[in-house]
Amino acid sequence: MEELSIPEKNIFLDRQSGKDFDRPQYKKLVKKLKPDDLLYIKSIDRLGRNYEEIQRQWRILTKERKVDIVVLDMPLLDTRRGKDLMGTFLSDIVLQVLSFAAENERTNIRQRQAEGIAAARAKGIRLGRPPQSLPPNYHSAYQRWKSGRITGTAAARECGMPLSTFRYRAKIYEKKTLP
Fold it and tell me: Per-block average pLDDT, block size 10, for the chain (179 residues)?
């Protein structure tokens, strides 16, 4: 985008998945676009990764918003050229193929991710944030709560944790202390 001398204020960058178009910067971009504006997209998979949604958004941008689009890594996807029937036909075919590839890649990524998680779990690797250690007074608060001398809310407050966390940790604590 810098090579095209696009001012930084006109560069919209979302740092989240392109699985859908419910992205803050994309919404801001669409609101800002006016007829005859030129939208540069690095790659079609940067626009989105959902086949039908890419097609729909492309139509909204080009037909309703009357914006020209240039996909930098695919010169055939330049709506400034070939506005005749043949040019439109070729652009539509290329867009469909690339949209399919983008969604297919997203599906493959999710499948590989799930396989990686399953393999890690099979090896006994714990995923996620490591659990915090229990506060020093947890045992006494737990014992008084279990015997009914204090409520769960009071025990959780004593330990400086939410009630749901106190109960969750209590289940784990019980499993570890039972013979």
Answer: 84 76 87 92 82 85 88 83 73 82 86 94 89 90 95 96 94 76
Alpha-carbon dihedral sign for residues 58, 64, 69, 74: positive
Task: Please give the Cα distance from 71 to 41 (Å, whole number).
Answer: 5
CA distances from 58 to 1, 75, 166 (A): 20, 16, 50
Asked whether 79 and 38 are in contact (CB, 8 A), the reply is no
Evaluate whether residue 2 is within a structural domain.
no
Q: Is residue 104 part of a domain?
A: yes
Q: Indicate whether 48 and 13 sit together in one domain.
A: yes
C-alpha distance from residue 121 to each of 44, 110, 116 (Å):
34, 16, 9
Same domain assignment for residues 76 and 155: no
The secondary structure of 105-150 as a DSSP string is HHHHHHHHHHHHHHHHHHTTPPPSSPPPPPPTTHHHHHHHHHTTSS
| Domain of residue 153, residue span | 138-177
Would you put residue 101 in left (φ > 0), alpha (ψ -120 to 50) or beta? alpha
80 in a structural domain: yes
Q: What CATH number did the domain enclosing 53 receive?
A: 3.40.50.1390
